[in-house]
Amino acid sequence: MGQAYNDVAEAIDFLEYNAREMVRLAQPQDTGSYATETNLYFYQPKGVAVVIAPWNFPLAISAGMSSAALVAGNPVVYKPSSQSSVVGHHLVEVFREVGLPDGVFNYVPGPGSVIGDTLVDSPKVSVIAFTGSMDTGLRILERAGRTAEGQMYVKHVVCEMGGKNAIIIDEEFDLDKAVSAVLYSAFVTRARSVPPARE
């Protein structure tokens, strides 16, 4: 229950942050105008964004990556992990409830092994946002680097790939609490029976 609450809270934070940042970034910035010359820089949409989201933090990371693309004006093709497709559909419902027009946020559930390459290889895709394993991320980077016939843009890929994080314990550690906390942090969505360490 606590993890679900945290996932929803983080999703809300991402939605608010991305919306507020886009309001700020949407203002053209003067880069040095002279006399009758006006020099501005501004952001514009890149095109179709494919969002490939992970099973852990299934709502927060999906909402964060998708809303970042949406507020910047890009239509999204959203593929959640097969393990979290139901939570992914709830995100679809949230975006429908707030009035996002049809065709702007497109839900494509299914196994990555079946549809992943098709999404990444499409010449209609301009941006790919991925969070997941190192192997899959490297595969996406390699495939997205090939320019397909009819592709108008070089694809921009944002990959957050899994890695190994160190657990640092000082000489005054409590072995039982340390083991419990490490197991909880590593397998929180899988091993609900392991409680977090408490003082």
In total, the number of strands is 7
Mean pLDDT: 89
Q: Sheet with the most strands? A: 5 strands, parallel
| Helical stretch tally | 6
Protein structure class: alpha/beta
In whole angstroms, the N-to-C terminal distance is 21 Å
Give the overall silhouette: globular
Order of helices and strands: HEEEHEHEHEHEH
Amount of beta strand: 15-25%
Can you describe this structure?
The chain is of the alpha/beta class and 199 residues long. 42% of the residues lie in helices and 15% in strands. It has helices spanning 2-25, 60-71, 85-97, 112-121, 134-144, 175-187; strands at residues 29-30, 40-41, 48-52, 76-79, 105-107, 125-132, 156-161. Helix 1 (2-25) runs parallel beside helix 2.
Give the topology.
Layout: H1 2-25, E1 29-30, E2 40-41, E3 48-52, H2 60-71, E4 76-79, H3 85-97, E5 105-107, H4 112-121, E6 125-132, H5 134-144, E7 156-161, H6 175-187
Parallel strand pairs: 3-4, 3-6, 4-5, 6-7
Antiparallel strand pairs: 1-2
Helix pairs in contact: 1-2
Keywords summarizing the entry:
199 residues, two-stranded antiparallel sheet
Write a short abstract of this structure.
The protein has about 200 residues and is of the alpha/beta class. The chain has six helices and seven strands.
